[in-house]
From TrEMBL:
GO molecular function, one term: monoatomic cation transmembrane transporter activity
Topology of this chain in the membrane: Multi-pass membrane protein
Organism, as annotated: Chelatococcus reniformis
The protein's name: Cation transporter
Principal cellular location given in the protein's record: membrane
Record's keyword annotation contains Lipid biosynthesis: no
SUPFAM superfamilies: Cation efflux protein transmembrane domain-like (SSF161111)
Stretches that traverse the bilayer: 12-29, 49-68, 80-98
Gene3D superfamilies assigned to the protein according to its UniProt record, in alphabetical order: Cation efflux protein transmembrane domain
Keywords recorded for this protein, A-Z: Membrane, Transmembrane, Transmembrane helix
Length: 199
């Protein structure tokens, strides 16, 4: 608005080229490391480096354009190249991390993923039907990479006794149906005749 910003395009081109190489290198390094770590925070950092690389690459192209139009009839555009390109890149870049931030907030606030809750409900309903239980309660949350699942099955009072091994077989059946067994899954399965234990 105040007439643009005059630049020394030769120095700007050198700076932008080095920055692009560094940012691309960090993006590749972070992405490669995250294949092993599988961290949402590292993924966000790698995405930040990618955004930096894209931003600086756009500026590099603009700086080269600005350098080439020196001493031409288009030279009057030179002072406007830096702020104009920066404004356009920001419009594209700003929305990129919103999805990751939304997911991170959901994890912090223990928001239940709808697809996981639906999956657990379907399995619990089938177990209730198959074994003649009265009902169930399911509590599901995702904390970072971890999934916490608590299932309470209300069984009929006075029903035929089962051995501990039989209850364990039912638990195994439920665990296999839910899937995702590993260090990131915390699964609790309770059988009770008293609904208050499930509330």
């Amino acid at each position: 608005m105040a007439g643009g910003r005059p630049l020394a395009f030769d120095h700007a081109i050198a700076y932008a080229a080095v920055t692009v190489l560094a940012a691309v290198g960090m993006t590749i390094f972070g992405t490669s490391a995250n294949r092993t770590l599988n961290s949402a925070f590292l993924a966000l950092d790698a995405r930040a480096w990618l955004m930096s690389a894209l931003l600086t690459a756009a500026l590099l192209v603009a700086f080269i354009f600005g350098y080439l139009i020196q001493d031409t009839p288009m030279a009057w555009l030179s002072p406007y190249i830096d702020p104009a390109v920066l404004a356009m890149v920001c419009i594209v870049v700003i929305p990129m991390p919103i999805g990751t931030v939304r997911q991170a907030l959901a994890d912090v606030l223990l928001v239940t993923p709808a697809d996981l809750k639906q999956h657990v409900d379907e399995i619990a309903q089938e177990i209730v039907r198959r074994y003649g239980f009265i009902s169930y309660r399911a509590y599901v949350a995702r904390v970072g990479r971890g999934r916490q699942i608590e299932l309470y099955f209300i069984v009929p009072a006075g029903g035929p006794p089962k051995r501990s091994e039989d209850w364990d077989l039912i638990r195994d059946d439920i665990g296999e149906a839910i899937g995702g067994e590993g260090p990131d899954r915390w699964l609790t399965i309770v059988f009770t005749t008293d609904p208050e234990w499930a509330e």
